[in-house]
Amino acid sequence: MPTISTTEHDRYKRLLTSMREDRQPWREHWRLIADYVMPRRYNWLQSQRETRISTQLSNPLILDGAATLAARTLAAGMMNGITSPARPWFRLSAPQFRDNSRVRKWLDAAQSDMLFAMAESNFYNALAVQYLDLSVFQTSAMFIYEDDADVFRCYNYALGEYFFMQNNRHIVDRFAREFSWRVEQVVAEFGLDNCSQYVQDRFKRGGEGYNQKIDLVHMIEPNGPPYRDIGVPQSMPFREVYWETKGSESGKLLRVRGFNEWPGSCPRWEIIGNDAYGAGPSSDAMGDIRQLQHMTKRKLEAMDYMVSPPVVADIQLQHRPTALLPRGITYVAGANNVGVKPIYTINPPIGEIDRMIEQLRGRIQEYYHNDLFRMISSLETVRSATEIDARREEKLVLLGPVLDRFQSEALDASVRRIFGIMYRNGLFSPVPPELEDAEAMIDYTSVLSDAQRAVGAAPLERGVAFVGNIAAAVPEALAVVDWEETIRDYWGNVGISEKNLRTREAVAEDRAQQQQQKAVAGAAEVGPPLAQSAKLLSETPVGGASDALSMILGNQ
Prior knowledge:
By secondary structure, the chain is α+β, with helices and mostly antiparallel strands. It is built from 15 helices and twelve strands.
């Protein structure tokens, strides 16, 4: 069993307490979101097991599932628009070697290997869960570990069990979680010898001892100063520890290990001030979501009054069988005014209520950006491609900051982590010497990122069109534009890979050859007229025995 000093273990416990206190104000907010949007998924936010099971089965607060459907639509739209498994959504590049064909081929091959490994692992399944977490609770956590079977494996941690802490750059670099595992799981993960005597006794007992729950703590933090050394090499920037909360001695850990890169993907929708957790669509839409449930409840109550109103009945019907269903017959003694009739009748404005409900649904869908992902299908008439592009660009203004944050907090961390695992396991071809000390960049080529870059391509198109119009009257205007760089910038903006363009060296060589060929062709064109002129001069007498050519050469 790994051992650290009691002082260092106490520091971990105090840090966990601090992170728990920092998260506490958010817990009630997340519980409210779970109650009204997705209670079955985050039932552990409830305080008691009985309440949790009841909520999971009945969903008592959700009468209209528009918010749940809108959140799922947002998650699916982001999955398909940002990291679709059906297309390459990122590429590796090294701008300083952009004209080096060997480097470019290696980066393209590494990208293909990574995409294949992602498809073969559970990466996309875990990523879909992460998008749903982010859409509903505006905060999510997915961690990537090396795996003997799948090279790497991804794990989604549940909101309510984990804690974030960010550094001075507002980047999450500390993570902790409290969770429970069965004895059998603890032993399988950490080994029997690393477990406390309490766990070992129950495992050896077998039977129901396997299923007893053990409370654990998992924490990841930066490695090295100002923290004490706990046995992780200083070359590893992050370290991880596990310990049992009960049954183990202070200073006894289940595991200590280091990481060469941050192993987690911890995106937030947006952050406010120094908050470690995110705010977003569910927070903004909560007023309309609760109002929608209230209006739906009142509509159902009004319809109940219309279909089954409170009634007044003749005293003679008391304790007598009655048939109040359609086509039912009730027999009573002959008398006037015998029967059952409503105490009062109501005529609720069901049409107005339906319109208000539809307006609430529409606003909720806008909060969750459903109009962006359903934009084309929701158009009332067929529109031009130009108008569709303009509408998409307008919507991306709202989603752009979220996309940038997701790329930096989630995708960058995931791609770098997967690249590091595959590189250390020798799953790439030999690295070109030029890249040994260089760092590759990550460029995203998803539908949404391509649409964002396409916004930058529009000014280039207008500029080229402007020059073309001027060139019709002033041809010299074409010489003002550097056409090679313009083409390269445009292709980059619309997301076309650089491998489809020739290198600058190859283009320069072609230009030199063309200039040389023009020079040779020009000399060939000038040669015959000069020879003919020389012949004429040599045959032209100027007096005496001289000719014109000899006279000219003699004068020189």
